[in-house]
Amino acid sequence: MLLRGSKLNTSGTLNIDSVTGFILSLQRENGDIPWHTDGKTDPWDLVETIMGLNIGGRAGAARKAFEWLESMQNPDGSWYSSYIKGEPGDRTCETHMAAYICVGLFHAWLIHKDTGLLKQMWPALEKAIEYALSLQAESGEIFWAKSPEGRVDPMALLSGSSSIYLSLKCALSLAFVLEKTRVSWETAFHKLGRSIRENTHTYNISKSRFSMDWFTRS
């Protein structure tokens, strides 16, 4: 599916400049990029958008979006599920939304090899992973969220935990780049992977038809 406002070129392939231009038309001065004009922003989709900007050669705009995320991070490492013009919309704090910044940063590293960006964003990345892992069950799965009142919802989504599995893999790769060791992350990564492979029955799979289901197959 194409972004609204994007175009195909004469050969029938996607016009990357058109797509990045559309994204840039939505980006606010502070780096925030909502779904659409006056729409909401959510951390997971913002990271996807940042990856699009980096593919399109717009590293500066991508960095501004990362910095907006950094500025909006909660003290416990989470983000709210949505923001509207910088104000919290849904105050639920989802684990997969927190951890996904690692995927965007690893993607940026593969393209630009910008160690400075990694060093700048490492504290936010580390807090994000620690938040997600704070909701990991002993059996390996990761509960999906804390409510606005701070209560843990004792339900693990297969798609969400699979997304976190990829995020952990990227976080460990970036730790290696920065010559950092995180044994607890490695342990959590292997526990989560084993849980996804062997204990699917412990997960809520009601959202398996949605986009993140591809993580369970990667």
Structural domains: how many: 1
The CATH top-level class label: Mainly Alpha
Major beta sheet, strand line-up: 1-2-3
Number of helices: 8
Distance between the termini: 21 Å
- Structural class call reads mainly alpha
Rg calc? 17 Å
Largest sheet: 3 strands, antiparallel
Helix content: 40-55%
Shape: globular
- Poorly predicted tracts of residues: 1-5, 214-218
- Listing every helix as H and every strand as E from the N terminus to the C terminus, the arrangement reads HEHHEEEHHHEEHH
- What CATH calls the topology is Glycosyltransferase
Task: Quickly give the CATH architecture.
Answer: Alpha/alpha barrel
In total, the number of strands is 6
Overview of the structural elements:
There is one protein chain. This protein is mainly α and 218 residues long. The protein has a single domain (16-217), classed as Glycosyltransferase (Alpha/alpha barrel). Helix content is 50%, strand content 6%. It has helices spanning 16-26, 43-55, 59-72, 95-99, 101-112, 115-133, 158-177, 183-198; strands at 40-41, 83-84, 87-88, 93-94, 145-146, 152-153. The chain has a 3-stranded antiparallel sheet. Strands 4-5-6 form a 3-stranded antiparallel sheet. Strand 5 and strand 6 form a beta hairpin. The model is unreliable at 1-5 and 214-218 (pLDDT under 50).
